[in-house]
Each structure stands twice: as C-alpha cells, then as structure tokens.
Amino acid sequence: MPRVLLIEDDPSIREGVGLGLRRRGHEVSAAETGEDGLALMASFRPELVLLDLMLPGINGVQVCRRIRETSQVPIIMLTARGDDFDIVVGLEAGADDYIVKPARTEVIEARVKAVLRRLSTPAGSRPEVEFHGELAIDRAGLTVAKRGERVPLAPSEIKLLLHLSASPEHVFSRQQLLEYVWDHSYHADARLVDACVRRLRTKIENPAGSPRYIQTVRGFGYRFGPL
Amino acid sequence: MRRIAPLGLRTRLIAAFLLVAAISAATSAALTYREARTAILKQSQDTAVSSMRDLVGRLSLPLPPRPDELKSACADLARSSQPHSWMVYAEYAGNTVSSAESPNSTVITDELRAEARTRPNGAVQRVRKGKEVYLTFAMPATFKHNDRTQSSGLVFYGVMPLATEQTTVQAMVVAARDGALPALGIAVIPALLAARSVLKPVRRLRHAALSLGRGKLDTRIEVKGSDELADLARTFNETASALEGSVEELRQAEARARRFAADVSHELRTPLAGMLAVTEVLDEEAVHLDSDTAAALRLITAETGKLAALVEDLMEISRFDARAAELHADEVDVAEFVRKTLERRHWQDRVATELPAGLRARLDPRRFDVVLANLVGNALRHGGADVHVSAAEEQRPDGARLVVRVADSGPGIDPEVLPHIFDRFYKADAARTRSAGSGLGLAITLENVRLHGGGVRAANRDGGGALFTVEMPLEAAV
Predict the structure, then answer these.
(1) Domain assignment of residue B51, yes or no
(2) Which residues of chain B make contact with A13, given a CB cutoff of 8 A?
(3) Cβ(B163)–Cβ(B151) under 8 Å?
(4) pLDDT band at B432; cut points 50, 70, 90
(5) Domain limits for position B248
(6) For B101-133, what is each residue's pLDDT tens digit?
(7) Does residue B127 share a domain with residue B63?
(8) Do B331 and A219 touch (CB under 8 A)?
(9) Among A210, B145, B389, B415, which lies 20 to 30 A Cα-Cα from A152?
(10) Which of A49-53, B2-6, B52-56, B348-352 has the least mean pLDDT?
(11) pLDDT digits (tens, 9 = 90+) for B306-356
C-alpha cells in the first residue's frame, strides 16, 4: 500500500486521519508544519501527499509549490469549504485534487485511490507511443515529450492529457472529465478541470498564440486538437 | 358632505397676500378719499361763506328795503360770487327776491332758514337734488345800534352747485381704484417669492424624506438661514443621524451575531474532522464488543456524522449571510444533470422524470445538485412515493428561465406551515423535533437558488401533494 505523507497542524485531524488511513493499510508519516513536511519528502519518499492549506509558518500553497519544483508526486489538499480563494491558488500551484474537511476516512481513501489510479489503457491495438504534432505521448510509460524533451506532468495532468488525446476532436464537458479523470461526482468543482487545463497548457502549448492541443469549446468543455 | 378640495400652500399664500393688499389699498383709498373730500368741500364752503359775509357786510340798504333795490343787491352779490357763481336769494318779511329767474329756490330748506335766524354769522347746508349736490348758505343782514349788533330780519341765501368739487372727488375715486389694481398685481410677485422661499425648503424636505424612506440613511438637508423651516431641516437632519446611528448599531449587532455563528461553526469543524475520520474504526470494532458498548459506539458515530452535516450546513448559511457564497457556474445539459443527481443517491427508480433533451443551462453544479437533492429528498421523505421531477425552459419578460418542478403525492403542506417552509430550523411537526435533515435544507435550497438569481415557491397541488417550483435564469450571471 502507498506511503502517504500527511502535513496537518491540527493534532486531532492529524491523529484521526493518520489512524484511519493506517488501518486501511497505508503507511502514514505525519508532519505538523510545512517545513517538517518538506524535510520528510526526501527521507520518507511518499507516493502521495495530503496537505492542509492552513499551516503555520510556510503555508500549504507554498509547500505545494516547493514540492512541485522537484517532484510530480500526487498532492491532495485538505481544505474547508468556503476557502474558495485558497482552493484556486492551491490548484494553480499544482495540487491534483482537494478534500473538504471534515471528511470520513472512506472519503479520504476514495480520493487517494482515485488520484493513484492509472487510467485503463484502451484496447491494445494502439502503438505504445503516439505522436500528435510536437508531442510524443507514451501511454504505457505514462510519459510525455515535447520535441523530444520530456515534460514533467503531475498525475492529474497526464491523466487529463491521456483521456483527451485518446479521442481527438471529441468534446468532453467538465462534468464528464471530473467523472473520468478525477473519479469525482458529476456535480463536483469544475475549477479542478480548469486549473488542470491551465497547468497543462503552460507545459505543452507554445506560450505565444492560442492553445493548439487542449482547446476550449465555449459553453461545452474541452477537446484535444484538431491539430 | 362634500369637502372643498384642499388648496396648495402656494395658492393659499397668494390669496392671503392679495387679500391683505386689497384691504390695505381699499382702506387707504377710503381714508384718503374721505379726508380729501372733506378738505375740498370745506375750502369751497369757507370761501363762499366768507365772501358772502364780506359782501353782505358792505351793503347799505334802507330798512325796509324796496323789492327793486333788494333785487339789484342780489344781482350785485351774485356777480361778486366766489369761488364759483352762486345764485342769491333774499328774504325779508315773507317777501323773496333773487338773482335768478325764479324768486324761490327749490333747494333751500326750512332747516337752513331756522338756523339762519339763530346764527348771526351764517349757516351752511349741503343739499342733494337729483344727481347734483348744492351748497346752500344763509347770511342774515345785521346793523349796529348802540354798539350792539342787531338782526335786520333780512336774510341772504346763496346757492352754489358743487359740480366742480364733485368731479374732483370722482377723479380721486377713479385714481384710487386705478392705483389699487396694479398694486394688487404687484402684490402677486412678493406672494410668489414668499411662496417660493417656503415651498423650496418644503420640497427639499419632501425629497429628503422620500430618499430616507428608500433606505438612504445618509440623506441630509443643507440648512439655510435660521427660520422655522431651517429649524425643521435641522430637526430632520438630527432625526436622520439618530436613525442612521441606530440602524448601524443594529447592523453591527447582526453582523456580530452572524460572525459568532460562523466562528462557532468553524471552531466545531476542526474537532469534528478528527472525530469523523475515526468513526469507521469505531464502527468496525463495534461488532466485537458487548451489545451495550456497541450500541453506545454506534450512537456516537451516527451522531458525529449528523453533527458534521449540521455544522457544514451552518457554515453554508453563514457564508450566505456574510454574502461570501460564490457561484461557480458551468454549462450543463439539464436532463443529464438531473439524472446524475438522482443516480448519485440511488433515487432513479423512485422518481419519475420529464426532462427535455438538449436543454442546456448555465449554473453552479454543486449548488444546483444540493437544490435538487434537498427538494427530491424532502418529497421522498414527507410525500411518499410518486415523486415527479420536470424541467423546462420558459420565457419570461426578463429572459429565458429554467423552471424545475418537484411534485409529490403525499399529504401536502399544512397551510399554516406554508409561509414558513423556507425558514431556518422550522419544523412542520412540533412532535417530530428531529428529522433526517438538519432543519436548514430548504433554507439552503432557497439561498442557493437566489444566488443563481432565481426563486423557489412551495404550494399544494389541486389533486393533493406538495409542489415545489424552482425558477431561475437559464444563464446564471456570475
């Protein structure tokens, strides 16, 4: 079972969530502050980070940015509903998903599993590496290269790209993407999708000019191409 | 009884001014007329009487006089008459002669004659005959005997028409009238100015009061001068300040109460988050414990869940109260949306739907899901089976609307409850103090729909059962 790094300043949540996840077989390491959490990144080498947004010292959003500088480990933010601004900033900083506190362990575990889940590859007739314009997408190796250079992508970003590029020119609504890519309900927060698209675009699109790979279809959603 | 329509302040002021002007013009004209008329008449009269006295005093007649001598004396007197020509009549021992054609005058009264006998200096009387006014005066002729003045029995009478004086007086009346009319006309101007000086502050006060009534509590009037209207304006300003102050106090108290509710919910949330994370552990262990301990554990975990839901609802309400609720709108297919809401809660087999294909709306998915779930859940809980959900686009004067109706076939809503159905913590049935919901479900539903710029109505259907109608813009403005 995956190693989870829990960064949470409130002792009851830290203990409760840690207890719940450990019972479900996760290896949990808990940190009280952002500094402690960042220190554990190297030694504990987590496969997933549960990150409280409201932290003393360096806050959750800054921790998220620091982690993303070196790692594409999945990050799930712990937040309170109503902290809308922080959610947006956290998503822009590279978080893959968020959980609204208070949450039952089953909810937290479902989110953890969803983020860690690999997308099922469509029936095997496809080549292992697909080329779309300057992009090379390796579905088996879950890597993406642009003009031969590897592009580091967070789990939600690569899943979104794989999902969209599997059906080029097909329009997906935000709700559909929330269901397929994030395993969320149909009625979840569409800002997850929008933030992920923005992050993906800064990594794979050319800065000048309008988006080529991930295109917005106004009033409906997103599609891959046409190139 | 018919009441006379009340006149405006302006009309009344002008009428009062005109009345005052008219009275003063009439009074001064009347007084002037009287004084001038008396002065004019008296002057004519004095001139006539004194010249007659001089003339009579200079006469020398033998006594008793011969009628021809007397007649020529009359003619002499008439020739020297002043200020206008008189006719002179003389009476002596019952005989009369005159300077005129007829020896007897028709205007000399017996009253004058009687007075003439008693007054040696002469008597005067004004007599009106037809339209003409005459001055009649009598002058008895006297002689001195042993240094004593004695009446000779001979009396001269003068009759002078006052036509000239009458014309002069008439001209004065005309002049007074002609002067009064423009004065009245001019009086309208200060009347208007006075009305303006009163009405302008009154109008300002009226506008300010209206503005205050519309909730603009910072409305104040510029205070000009120190009259009663300025006092009124000052009083208005003081009242408005006091009102603004107390409303501000109320507002602050309300804000404090709301902040308190938000803070309390926030503080409750952190321990709840820890508790909720471990409820599963307790539930799993409960099977190994004796029944009492297990029941106690299950009670705690179940209530922890409800408490967490209640706190979430309270937080949600606090955000609406603080106007901090945000709308994250997205384009959705309404039919798919409603179906997904029902599927998520496994209600799809218990609810009949009527959803047009291809109907798209712009709304906040999470919030609209809450709206639908609350209404359908409510219908399933209280209305029993046969819950029906329909969605449609309907045109209204202010644009296209998304109308969603949730109907059930239950007992309906008590008419006494109906006005309070969206109130917070309002329980339809006093005996059922706790229901499945937090008591905030419909209040949150209403707030969520309002956030979309719409409204929710609750009603009872003709055929029985309750009907909730959500109506909101097809495109929610963000």
Answers:
(1) yes
(2) 270, 273-274, 277
(3) no
(4) very low
(5) 229-321
(6) 777 778 888 888 888 878 877 888 888 888 788
(7) yes
(8) yes
(9) A210
(10) B2-6
(11) 999 888 888 888 889 888 888 988 889 999 999 999 999 999 999 999 999
CA distance A43 to A60: 20
Task: Check CB contact under 8 Å for B340 and A19.
Answer: no
Taking CA atoms, what residue in A is nearest to B284? A23
The verdict on B158 and B295 lying in the same domain is: no
Query: pLDDT (tens digit, 9 = 90+) per residue, A93-108?
Result: 999 999 988 888 999 9
Q: What is the mean pLDDT of residues A9-23?
A: 92
Amino acid at A80: A
Q: What is this model's ipTM?
A: 0.85
Chain A: closest CA distance from residue B341 (Å): 8
Which chain B residues touch A20 with a CB distance below 8 Å? 277-278, 280-281
| Residues A32, A14 contacting (CB under 8 angstroms) | yes
CB-count exposure of residue B167 (10 Å: 0-12, 13-18, 19+): exposed
Q: In chain A, how many domains are there?
A: 2
The Cα–Cα gap between B249 and B94 comes to 110
Taking CA atoms, what residue in A is nearest to B282?
A20
- Tokens 């414990």 -> residue: B289
Task: Please determine, for residue B462, whether its predicted confidence score (pLDDT) is greater than 90.
Answer: no
Cross-chain residue pair B281–A23, CB shorter than 8 Å: yes
B306 touches chain A (CB under 8 A): no
CA–CA distance, B188 with B320 (Å, rounded to integer): 61
Gap from B374 CA to chain A (nearest CA, Å): 14
B431 near A CB under 8 A: no
Question: What is the token pair recorded at B399?
Answer: 């644009």
Residue for token pair 């006309």: B185
Of the partner residues B280, B305, B330, the one whose CB lies closest to the CB of residue A20: B280
Q: Are residues A161 and A192 in the same domain?
A: yes
Give residue B5's pLDDT.
58
Place of tokens 């926030």: B266
Q: Which of A186, A191, A216, A217 to mutate to test the interface with B (most CBs of B within 10 A)?
A: A186
Alpha helix segments (H runs only) across B214-333: 228-286, 291-321
Please tell me the distance in Å from B262's CA to the nearest CA on chain A.
Answer: 11
At B407, which CATH number?
3.30.565.10
pLDDT, average across residues B6-29:
83
B365 and B427 housed in the same domain: yes
Q: Say which CATH number the domain at A97 has.
A: 3.40.50.2300
SS3 state of residue B63 = coil
CB-based contact B278 A19, cutoff 8 Å = yes
